[in-house]
Amino acid sequence: MKIVVDCYGGDYSPQETVKGCLLALMQNQDINLVLTGNAVELTNLVGGKFDGRIEYLNASEVITNLDVPTTAIRTKKDSSLVVALDRVKNDDECVGMVSSGSTGAVLTGAVLKIGRIEGVSRPALLPLLPTLNGGKVLLIDCGANVDCKPAMLVQFAYLAISYANSVLGISSPRVALLSNGTEDKKGNEFTKQVFELLKQEPINFVGNMEARDILSGSYDIVVADGMYGNIALKACEGTATTMLKMIKQEISKGFFTKLGALLAKPAFRRVKSRMDYNQNGGAPFVGINKILIKAHGASKANSICCAIEQVKEMHKSNFINKIKDTLPRNNEQ
Amino acid sequence: MKIVVDCYGGDYSPQETVKGCLLALMQNQDINLVLTGNAVELTNLVGGKFDGRIEYLNASEVITNLDVPTTAIRTKKDSSLVVALDRVKNDDECVGMVSSGSTGAVLTGAVLKIGRIEGVSRPALLPLLPTLNGGKVLLIDCGANVDCKPAMLVQFAYLAISYANSVLGISSPRVALLSNGTEDKKGNEFTKQVFELLKQEPINFVGNMEARDILSGSYDIVVADGMYGNIALKACEGTATTMLKMIKQEISKGFFTKLGALLAKPAFRRVKSRMDYNQNGGAPFVGINKILIKAHGASKANSICCAIEQVKEMHKSNFINKIKDTLPRNNEQ
Description:
five-stranded mixed beta sheet
């Protein structure tokens, strides 16, 4: 199977992106890659390895975080991102793509170029976060749609259920609504409307939940509007980072605590790796006609490799068709 | 100065609440307390200590989390909370109060009984969170108002500025708006409107900020609608708890990591104490005519003591009058 990788636009592009590609090719005999960007530079970085399994698709421009997404997609037609999107859209052999470029441009471009699955109103970002019991929780939407109507969140639930069914093998995922309390009456006007809609759906809706329980392992899917979801996701990220830094600060204050930290280092490394959801790939952008993984802007080789493997897993689990089967009919908003 | 303490309604009431009161009396010669609740039980718990500095105000009922706040305030007139609110309202000597009871009931009761400061549209919850550099950040509103109009957030900013000015001694606090990115154009329709309003005010408005930077120390005040703020606050809380549990899980996996953790224990304890903002008191409910600290439901003696001391500090810094001076005129919404 062919997977397209936008090799520019990330913080460590193209070096780390290419390294990630090579890692993925080494670990996955069943994939071939199409790399987009400066073909000469990319060819040099690859250095003749994996001949026959890599295709170079030249692109002379790069879309950055400073570009206005919609304008950039329209005007930078020869950017590594747009070239990647066009290829994925037009080539049936290409099952999906990975980009660590500007989130706004990647999402806008994906909707404009690859297009939405019929019946999907708004595609959404669906990161997988680590839970305390070693599992995963799906948080949807995390920022693609900052102004939502209640019915959109019902679709988000179905998109995440499709993922849980096909990729994670969870047949009846526990769906909860992000709110300010667990009781049925909690929430603001918006979430109360969403609550009533979700209650009517033939899904395993377990009710309202609080942001403090996102990582608890009590839920498989947390549904939120893109603004709430973004705030929750980033608050989790920020607290994890802050705590690791605070631990460092406090440990450095004494000899014994330093010694102890040295001995406990492997444990910390494991916690850091568990909490760093970016390290394990990227966030699927779901509801479009192909598989797309938005890798973090700061992705290094390992994350890119994981993101490529995510595309492979999603394709093997028949994710796109699962969405089409799962979405209720006549649900276009 | 007299401070009223609602001794029932918390998870560890009245035992821990009373212990906290005794601690506060011991550490603060300049305060007297009025304890509300079952006077016989309270008298027994106090055991004759601090004679002359404690007044017992009997109340035969307790409002719980199961009660509907507005109904409970109206019907349970002889509850420890309502009796406390009435006393604070009517007795000029009582400068403020502490309650670890049902958040909904405490906030509703405070508005109904104590009343809003003239010109304040919506009082708000203002917790102080720890920052990486050892300082504090004020997050307003954290759940009192889940359906806000843009202008309300401007008032929240002024309420927090009053606190920063008077209690923290920060003359020109850096005010940021919780959004999904730092750029001026980020946000949803609601926050974009708030952004435009805040920009016009004669305050130190530094723009949009992301939830991942709440604890960074880059801001003194983070303004949010009560729903966003609640989600951000609880996501921070939940991640901190989850990480400490994950660290425990990972440490228990090996002999050396266990030994290391033992040596590093003082450092962990300090991190835990820094992150646990409840341990250092409660969240001021600001914009009403008296000082009110909403202590966490799970408050133990130390938190109650800190919450009482918060009331004292806020009174000494002339917080209520500072609000009246700071609020722009004709700002009622």
